[in-house]
Design a protein that fits this description.
Strand order of the largest sheet: 1-2
Order of helices and strands: HHEE
Oligomer: single chain
Distance between the termini: 50 Å
Helix content: 25-40%
Structural class: mainly alpha
Number of strands: 2
Number of helices: 2
Strand content: 5-15%
Length: 64
């Protein structure tokens, strides 16, 4: 990370090399997010409903 990033967000942390600044970090996050959700669309695949617990108005209880 650049020294300015370390000074602002990791005060007191030593750094010996210069790396990404905030713009570089943001660009990488956007790229990774795009790769993770590519082609999913607004109503893409979601997790199936189910599991050991389901919400109930009386409280959670095992479904088995």
């Amino acid at each position: 990370l650049k020294q300015s990033v370390v000074d602002k967000y990791f005060t007191g942390t030593a750094t010996r090399i210069e790396g990404s600044d905030m713009e570089g970090i943001a660009a990488e996050v956007i790229e990774r997010h795009h790769d993770a959700y590519l082609g999913r669309g607004d109503n893409g695949p979601t997790l199936e409903v189910g599991g050991d617990y389901q919400w109930r108005s009386e409280g959670e209880a095992p479904t088995r």
